[in-house]
Amino acid sequence: MSSNKVYIFDTTLRDGEQVPGCQLNTKEKVQVARALEELGVDIIEAGFPVSSPGDFDSVVAISKAVSNPVICALTRAVKADIDCAVNALQYAKRKRIHTGIGSSDIHIQHKFNSSREKILEQAVDAVKYAKQYVEDIEFYAEDAGRADLRFLAQMVEAVIDAGATVVNIPDTTGYCLPEQYGAKIKFLAEHVNNIHKAVISCHCHNDLGLATANSIAGVVNGARQIECTINGIGERAGNTSLEEVVMILQAHKNLHLTTGVNSKKIYSTSQLVSRLMNMQVQANKAIVGKNAFSHSSGIHQDGFLKNRDTYEVINPADVGVDQSLIVLTARSGRAALKHRIGELGYKVSKEELNTIYQRFLEMADTLKQVENKDLQQLMEEFKNVEA
Ligand code: KIV
Ligand code: ZN
User: Fold this and answer.
1) Which of 100, 119, 168, 177 is the most exposed place for a label (fewest CB within 10 A)?
2) What pLDDT, in 10s, does the model give residues 295-343?
3) Buried residues in 309-345 as b, exposed as e (16+ CB within 10 A)
4) How far is the CA of 172 from the centre of ligand 1 (A)?
5) Which residues in the chain are classed under CATH 3.20.20.70?
């Protein structure tokens, strides 16, 4: 039975950074890499060195700046890419080459104009070539989500024989349903003869909003690495988001799966990436969105104020968020209003609260959100009328 530890492979600086308009310079990438090290990720995919001199320099700089996580560089199954990656990783204390090729017939025919046999040969050759320079080799079977399962199994077995230590099964187009992706991983775990020599990795895209669910299905079925990005950024609809998978595994203890991530650093890392990439986190984003711990409807506020567990499955402090918020809107109830005016230092009777609540609703219908200053004004007017 494989261990309970799920390795967190962060690809914010590679797949995440492919988002148009979000490119970072080397200094900024080093800043993010240091934050990822603090966060406790196991592997940082630092870039695709052959893609540009800037990316090459960033992999070199990150290799020098960071010592705990493994530093990984992406290549195609091409010798020149691998040479370049070996060079870029020369200062890394712990290094990994991530090489691979398409595995679905769509990719084999339309992207490579090739055949399964030739692709298999190229995959094996690339792994053998990279293995001469670096011990830790991860192989990606691009578009594995749509690949023929028997061919995928054949490819995985061949690259492990050639020396791959991690086999990445990407759902490159975000196509799979969780049960399909989980079944794919289970099949590989059970039918590839040498699979015990490698870690199976999940790399899921979010085109249908299923990246996180698919990654969880993957680890439940035997994978032990998740490739993810901060805030779920990445190509098109993005990648699996790191904060989601980490908190799912933390919240669902019955899965008996753990990560080495210090969840208390999640929010600050999310803010850093958002700021440097100039990419706002959507307000309703799970875990790190502005509204992730905000309660605005009267029913929820009443329950939350009685016991937070009624409407929160994780404690905001666990991800480094100071506190949950009670947002006052026209949908809020008396319990939340009483709580807030209490925080502002006013004590009111039940009858007074009824009157104040009616005035509050009139105010809330005209404002989107009632802030403390608005409430203070309302309370002062109320006191003057009552006096
Ligand atoms: O989505 C994908 O298939 C990738 C590979 C290069 C790992 O990003
Ligand atoms: Zn990807």
Assistant:
1) 177
2) 999 999 999 999 999 999 999 999 999 999 999 999 999 999 999 999 9
3) eebbebebeebbbeebebbbebebbbbbbbbbbeeee
4) 6
5) 7-277
